Amino acid sequence: MDQEIILGCHLSISKGFKAAAEIANSIGANTFQFFTRNPRGGRAKALDPKDIKGLKQIMSENNFGPLSAHGSYTMNLCSNKEDVRDFASRIIIDDMLRLRELPENTVYVFHPGSHVGQGVEEGIEYIIRGLKDAVDVYPEANIALEGMTGKGSEIGFKFEHIKNIIDGVGKGNLGICLDTCHLYSAGYDIVNDLEGVISEIDDTIGKERIMAVHLNDSMTEMGSNKDRHEKLGEGSIGIDALVRFASHPALKGRPINLETPNEIDGYEREIKLVRELIRKSC
Fold first, then answer.
1. 0.85 exceeded by the pTM?
2. Is 259 a catalytic residue?
3. Which end of the chain is more exposed for a tag (fewer CB within 10 A), N or C?
């Protein structure tokens, strides 16, 4: 297994964490991402201590890096409706309790949310309130706000948004999850100016706060503000730029997961391709 990159993909845990880890290992991955609960709802399957023990054993035996636990898409901490914000707060607090039972250093990734017309500043204030409560439940949790594309009233498509949230919470281990499709669609030129983008991250958030990565090509052009993931090398970003991104020193040791439109065999091909191209570039 290539020790220079922690690379995997999004996998279902419907048959358990151990089964997902076995699949990941079989396709050349040394991490994987999973939804903490129904991504379009609020229900979560009870954790099985025996299953978690099996997961940890596979991770230890195969030198896995940190896993990524993705929060539900229905969670909107900055909604203009109080009941929606309350629902999101309950979900994230429950996710923190579940995270305590999972392998150490698991990164919790979630979409900051949409302000639905209230404005970015007010939306950020709501997110800060929700995250303060979550951090109180599990102060050691690694919580990564995912950078977004900027469609609609999304918050998080500018690094400054993430910085203001982190500063506002003022406690816990908060950071950012970089999604290559989202970055490019938000107007960050990772194709022609990767160093400039990494430098901007460092100047605003701090590159040490990069906690996780989603490696995806984009169906749309830079600055489109559209969230359209594409298979690696088949979109507007291109395989060369994606490999440069994945192998950048600022991302070393961070879990990198594919969210490309693939089945397991497609993920296996992409994981193999990225590893081969990184080795050739060294």
1. yes
2. yes
3. C
